[in-house]
Fold CRP-like cAMP-binding protein.
Amino acid sequence: MALIDDIRLFAQVPLFAGLSEDKLRLMAFGAERRRIVEGQTLFREGASADCGFVVASGSFRLSSTARDGSVRHEGVAAVGTLLSELAMISVIERKFTATAVEDSEVIRINRPLFRRMLEEYPDVAVMVQGRIRANLAAMIDGASGMAGRFA
């Protein structure tokens, strides 16, 4: 795919929505495309994460391991989904395993590239911080709603 296609795809990712084409171009130029064949694992739960992935084509089954050892289906990541957004900023472990449901492509955004974007464009850093805070607040609200199940 052409660089312009990657820029259009990034513009659809909620975390990057509203960024100018020049900023998206910088990120797309420094990112790396990877092909993943059906059944191949993109990453495993518990592994150290140093990048995020935008699903460019295909889809990925997301799963995690429960305390009893059973595998839980967490959902499917389709085109335009950003996987492991926090890994682009900080050292974290993968919270799930991502396995290709079909032949797929991802765009890998490594931490140094994303940090460069945040350093060169402080307005982007402020915007990203706000969006991540909103995502975390929504997750906390969702978890609070389940508190009764664990009492």
Summary: Residues 3-144 form a domain with the Jelly Rolls fold (CATH 2.60.120.10). The chain has four helices and ten strands.
